[in-house]
Design brief:
Blueprint (H helix, E strand, L loop, with lengths): L28 H11 L5 H8 L10 E4 L2 E2 L5 H11 L5 E4 L3 E2 L3 E3 L2 E10 L4 E10 H5 L2 H14 L1 H10 L5 H10 L3 H21 L11 H8 L7 H21 L8 H10 L3 E4 L8 H4 L5 E5 L7 H14 L8 E4 L3 E2 L1 H4 L7 H4 L12 H9 L4 H13 L1
């Protein structure tokens, strides 16, 4: 599959990468080194500098809200340095990490992004939970629920690997039709998946649990860039992505806690609750769950920002006196693991995200719409902070 280190490094057709008599599913020491680099969580000096050095500063930004972002394995002290460099003049900030299905504390607050299931419209959804650190310390039952969800959610990687290793399965055939992948592409992906499966068997006991992610497959294949044809690898990645989407769509939701259960337990712990990128699952806007607000802008969900603001504002007006009114939120959805990669291996769409950078707050029409409702970002930050400290 990959060329030996002794071979020249010119790009070659994929068909020529195979060596006669070599088992394309048999991992090499080079393959193992690539895999270990992908699941390693200790940062080298260059990676530390990539985290520290923010690409841009916003000295005129005084109020910052970041309630939807993922530290992953990047140390929070380094993230704090990056944040300070990005917003050197900020005088009001509400910064809460939202690790997937794990409650993580930072600077007096804690948060998590939770996978759950809404039976009323038969769909997996996500919620952002936020706590004061005092309330997070008392959330043992909720943390137990999240641990179960975390462990179950991680099995999706194994499902993906299994699907990629079955070239004649309905999943592979559908993905092949969708992407035009031929037998060479499918065979190559099968071999790469077999290698990853072998390494997962070897190192599962020593890997950090949060490293069991689907992106291992993408990044493992991308390590061949510069040694194999770009077009061939692009077709392989398109096939992998198609299979991944099929696996995600078929992933059983019956093992997730129900949305109402998560909300009930979160409220019992004094948590705030925000619905992230609701445009990805529209029915949640009609469910009228007991939440503090909705995310109206996100790098993945920014097409309907003004419409979503109107929905939230209209709902706020209908709520009676003394009841908690829904707030407008924006989330940058930053994944810090993307920052530690060499720039050539980064996903540009994810690498450009920055904690607290949400351009829609400056949009003239958004500012005007919020002003007509008597609010703005600073008021929303103050209101939500008060709710969390309750």
């Amino acid at each position: 599959m990959r060329k030996s280190a002794k071979q020249n490094r010119e790009s070659v057709p994929a068909v020529d990468v195979y060596i006669a008599g070599e088992d394309p599913t048999s991992p090499t020491p080079d393959d193992e080194a690539v895999f270990l680099s992908l699941v390693r969580t200790t940062l080298d000096p260059q990676q530390i500098e990539r985290v520290r050095n923010a690409p841009a500063a916003y000295p005129h930004e005084k109020c910052v809200m970041a309630i939807h972002w993922h530290p992953e394995f990047v140390p929070l002290d380094l993230i704090a340095e990056r944040f300070d460099a990005t917003f050197p003049e900020a005088d009001d900030a509400l910064i809460i990490p939202t690790q997937h299905n794990v409650v993580l504390e930072y600077n007096g607050f804690a948060g998590a992004e939770v996978d759950c299931y809404s039976a009323s419209f038969n769909q997996k959804v996500q919620l952002l939970l936020h706590f004061s650190d005092e309330n997070a310390a008392k959330a043992d039952a909720l943390k137990s629920m999240l641990k179960y969800t975390f462990d179950y959610r991680n099995t999706q990687l194994l499902d993906l690997i299994e699907a990629l290793r079955q070239p004649n399965s309905p999943r592979s055939e559908l993905a092949s039709l969708q992407t035009g992948a031929d037998s060479k592409v499918i065979g190559f992906v099968l071999g790469e998946a077999a290698k990853i499966q072998e390494f997962l068997s070897r190192y599962a006991d020593v890997m950090r649990p949060d490293m069991f992610k689907n992106r291992i497959v993408r990044d493992f294949i991308d390590s061949g860039r510069g040694r194999m044809e770009e077009d061939f690898l692009n077709r392989a990645q398109a096939f992998v992505k198609a299979v991944k989407e099929i696996v995600k769509a078929e992933f059983p939701t019956r093992y997730f806690y129900r949305t109402e259960e998560v909300i009930e337990e979160a409220r019992a712990c004094g948590a705030g609750i925000v619905v992230p990128h609701p445009e990805q699952f529209w029915p949640i806007l009609l469910a009228e769950y007991d939440v503090d607000g909705y995310e109206v802008w996100n790098p993945m969900s920014r097409k309907y920002t003004e419409f979503l603001i109107s929905v939230v504002m209209d709902r706020s007006e209908r709520i009676g006196f003394g009841k908690r009114k829904p707030l407008v939120f924006m989330g940058d959805d930053t994944h810090m693991s993307e920052k530690v990669k060499e720039p050539r291996w980064q996903d540009p769409a994810k690498a450009d995200r920055e904690i607290g950078v949400q351009p829609a707050w400056k949009d003239v029409s958004v500012v005007a719409r919020l002003a007509s409702a008597g609010t703005d970002k600073r008021r929303i930050v103050a209101e939500y902070r008060d709710r969390l400290r309750g």
